[in-house]
């Protein structure tokens, strides 16, 4: 087998070409908040022995072959060129270190890594903040893989804090309501009962994919406090803010309302967005606004090992297996003002309908067809236009239910974000142990990040209180 510095070439996947094109240069950032001060003396050794062997992509650069096709070319890696350890002013105040970290993150969110080196960086923040004694930031180009792949790779470097010999486990995708066993009905009757659902699914799928095409080419969202309409927004400065929610509390709301955790979180986010829009511009509470939901199209639960993901016969293939759907954000009408739980119920109906739709797969097929006919730059432009014409991008990942550790450094918190795309607001959701972390990347100078965060917190408080009173 080739070592990581031997020159080996293999083709770049179509999505890898979309995300590293003249139109889009996108990154996934993973943040680990550590419970103890960082000892970086073994950092380079760990990168060589643990991180680089995970996947050949981490030791490759993207090149153009003689036939014009993009290829991954294995190169010798100098880990010291990829590790960044910033120096902050010495100060005893944790709050000031929070601000120093925030300012530093805003800088690296917009910086691009050199195309002449493997497309990743690791930033080691050795200063204490409110959430940890130190912070590790993994900056990975989206061309290397999607959030699922890259999080799987990151988790391959970590162990359970309580017992490293045991594997990490993840939340199951249990449904909120148990459906009756269809085996009790005769097959013919069962098919007849399912026929309306099949017909509905067919038309919903056509509607979703058709709307996606129209949205990416013709229709733009209204300009609002969450959508500026500025060109080239991806190159602007962005800031990150976070809120942490109790999974037990969310499960309590779920049980009260008879919905799913996804329904609760989606309804809360939509309500929070409208609260912020109303506070900044009252008319915008009923503006036409769309959320683009990024979806993992793998039909699996939890994460696979990187070895399994690299196996062509595995269901959880490495790479970018994502698609997207546009979802209209419910307007803040008088009915929803008086009863915010309507946002959760609307989300429940919407998600239930989308589950019966194959629109997400049709969109993937359309992108693949466009790739064959017009090439990766055209597809990248199509994706860019879709996001530019919308108001917010939302994505989520599951984290483990047990505490993790990296080289004997227990992990207090885990979250992620994405950059390089033109939306002004990006919201990512990640679970870890018994906490759900909502990370908001907002355009500095346009979105008031403190008010935005406050509106999201208020949304959860109001929905939680209303649900408990139901």
Mean of pLDDT? 85
**Number of distinct beta strands:** 16
Strand order of the largest sheet: 5-6-7-2-14-13-8
How would a crystallographer describe the biggest sheet? 7 strands, mixed
Give the radius of gyration: 22 Å
Q: Describe the global form.
A: globular
Number of helices: 13
- Order of H and E elements: EHEHEEEHEEHEHEHHEHEHHHHEEEEEH
Give the helix proportion (percent range).
Answer: 25-40%
- Main structural class: alpha+beta
Separation of the first and last Cα atoms? 62 Å
Roughly what fraction of the amino acids lie in strands? 15-25%
Poorly predicted regions: 174-189
Pfam families: WS_DGAT_C (PF06974), WS_DGAT_cat (PF03007)
Catalytic activity: an acyl-CoA + a 1,2-diacyl-sn-glycerol = a triacyl-sn-glycerol + CoA; a long chain fatty alcohol + a fatty acyl-CoA = a long-chain alcohol wax ester + CoA
Protein name: Diacylglycerol O-acyltransferase
Membrane topology: Single-pass membrane protein
